[in-house]
Amino acid sequence: MVVQQNNVISFGGADTGRRHRVGDRTNPLAISVRKALGRHLRNLLQNLFDNVDDALFERADRAGSNQESEQYFDAMRIIRKHRATIGADFVDSTLAGFDEFWNSGPRPAEGQSGSDFQATELSLVEKSEAEEDLAITNLVSKSEHRHREGLFAIEQRFGHLAGIEISESNNPVSPRHIAEAFRQASKELPVDLTIRLVVYKLFDRYVTSELEPLYDEINILLIQAGVMPHLAYQPRHSASSHAASGHRQEAGPATTAQGYPGEPGQVGTAELTRAVTTGVFDGLRNLLRQQRETEIATSSPGATVITTDSRPYSLDELIQTLNHLQQSPQPTGTGLRTLVIGELPQLDDPQHTKTLPSLEADVIDLVEMLFQFILDDDSLADALRAQIARLQIPVLKAAILDKDFFNSQTHPARQLLDELAHAAIGWTEADGRAEGGLFKRIESLVEKILNGFQNDVSVFQGLLEEFRGQQADEARTSQQFEVRASQVARGQETLATAKLRVGEAIEVRMLDREVPEFITKMLRDGWSALLVLIHLREGEQSESWKRNLTAVDELLWSIEPKTRQEDRQELIRKMPTLLKCFREGLNNISYDPYGIAHFFKELQAIHLQRLKAITEEPVIPAPIAETQPEATAQPAAEEPPASSAEPRVPDEFDHAVAQLPTGTWFQWQREDGQSLRAKLAWRSNTTGRCLLVNRRGLKIEEMESERMAGLLREHKAKVISGGSLIDRALGAIRVALGPRETQRQ
Length: 745
Prior knowledge:
By secondary structure, this protein is mostly helical. Helices cover 57% and strands 6% of the residues.
C-alpha cells in the first residue's frame, strides 16, 4: 500500500518501524528506479562490448610478436561468444542486489571469494587476483570521486526511506556494487590476466565513468516522488544554518545552495538536510544529564541553590571565542569547558551573569571526552596522536555548528579524524618526519585547519578529499609491495611443503633397506630436486609424480639380491627403461655430469652382480648410507619413560591469532627492546606462518602463529584496534556515562 504523507511517499502504510519495502516489485517508485537502473546498465555494457574489438585490435596491431597478436584475436572471439551471458548475469546480479537491499537489508559489496588451489598454481593465481583487486579498487575509487555529488544525494534519499545510514559500501547502485557485479559475471571468461585487465579498463571507461545520467535519473525519480525534494546538491555545512539552540532552520533568501540537475526551483531553497537519526547525540545528552543529577544528589543533598539573573551566550560569541582559542597555544591540564568559559566575555555584575547554552555545554563536554579517548588511545604513535589532538578546538567548533557530527558517520570532520587515525596506525618514529611523508602531511593538514577554519564546515570536506587522494596514491604503491612480499612468502611456503613431501616420500622408501651411499646421495640430492619441481608444477596426483616415485621403487628393488631366475629375468627386462628414466631425469635438472657418470658406473657393477647365478648371499660392494638420522642406541631397560605431558591445548590466544583477518595491525617488542608495528599481510593455511609488513608494504618479519599467540599471552604484544576511531570513542563515552553497574561489568 502506498500512502501519501506530507508530500513524501511512504511504503508500508502506518508501520513506520519497519523497513520501507521499496524493492517490492508492485511499488511504482521501486519499478521506476529498478527500470532506470537496468536500462542504463544494459546500454552502458552494450557500449563497452561495441568497443572491445577496436581496443583489442589496436593492441594486436601493436603486439611485439605473432603469439601476442594472436592472443588478442583469440580474446575477441571469446568475448563475442560470452558477451550475452556476461551482460545478462551482470544486470541480473545488480538488480538482485537492489532488490535484496530494500527487502532484506543492506550488505557490503562482495569481494573476491576464496578458492582452493593446488600448491603449484597458488602463486600465479594469487598474483592474478591481487592485480584484479587493484584494478577494481582503482576504477571504483575514481568513479566514486567523479560521481560523489550524485551518489551523496542518492545515499541521503535512500537512507531517508530505509531508516538507516547509507554509504558507498552498502548503496546498491554504488560503483563498488556495480563493479563487483561485473567482476563476478565475467569471472568465468576463459582469458588470461592481460586480457581481463584490458576489459576492466574498458569497463572503467564506458561504464563506471558514465554513471552520471543514471544517478541523475534516480535522484529525479526520488524527488518527483517527494523524497527529500529540498536536499542540496553539495554536502555543505553552513554556520548560518544553525541557530544558537542548535536546531535546523530554513535558509533565507541569501542561501545559494545548488540544486540538483533537473530539479526546478532548487537554487536558493532550503539548507542541506541530512538523512540521519538524532538518537546518538540525544542519547549522550541524556546520559550526561543523568550523571549530573546523580552527582548533585550525591555530593550536596538538600543544598541551597543560589539563583542569579543569567542569560546564555550567543552562538556568535561562542564561535568568536573558539576562533581566538584556535589560534592560541593551549595550556595543559585545563578542562575544555573551563578553558572556553575563561575566554568568554564576562559581565561585571555578579548578579547578572552569562552562561553556556545547555546544548552547547553538552557538546563541549562530549568533545572533551572524545579527545580524552584519543589521547589515551595507544593505537596511535605519540607524535601523530599529539597532532590529531591539536584539532580539539576546530572539531568542537564544527560540532557546535553542526550537531550531526555525533549522529552521522559521513560527517566530513568526523570522517577526517577517522582517516587521520587510520593512516597513523602503522606510523612509527622510524618512518621519520621528512617532507612528503605521512607526518608532514598530517602536520600540514592540521595547520590548514587551524589557520583556515572559521565557520565554514565544508573546509573539512575539501581537506578530507585531498588527504584521501594522497593516501590512495600511497596505498597503491604499498599494496604492490605487499602483494610481492606475500607472493614471496607464499612461494617459500609452497617450496618448503614440496621439499618436505619429497623428503618423506624418498626416506620412507629407503627405510629398513640397505642402500648404497652413492644411491642415497643421488636420491637425496638429485632425484629429490626433480620430484620437487614436479610437485610444484603438477602436484602429487599427476602421472609424472607417480611415475618418478615408481622409478625409485624399482631402483631400490633392482639392487636387492636376486636369488630366483625369474627375478633376474625381470631385472634384465626393466633395466633399459629404468636407466633411461634416471638418465633423462637427472639431465633435465642439470645434475652434476660427474655425479651422473659415477652413479651409473656403480649401479652397473651392482646390477652385474645381481645377474650372476648366486649360490650364496652376495655382499654389496658399495658402502651403506644411513637412511635415518643418527640415534644413540640404548638398552630397552634404560629407555626413558614416555613423556606424560599432554600436548598443549590451544587457548584463547591461539584462537584469537587464528581468527585475525589479514590487514590487522600488530605491535610487539623484540628482544632488543625495539617496538615494532606491522600489518598481517598473509598467513599460511598449512603451517600458520604469518607475514608481517610495514605501512609501505615491505616485509618486517615472518612469525609463527604459536609465537604470536605467546607474545600476546605474555603481554609482550597487542593487536591494534581497527575500525572507526570516533565510533570507538563514542562507545567508550557511552560506557563512561552509563550506570556504575554497567561500567563494572
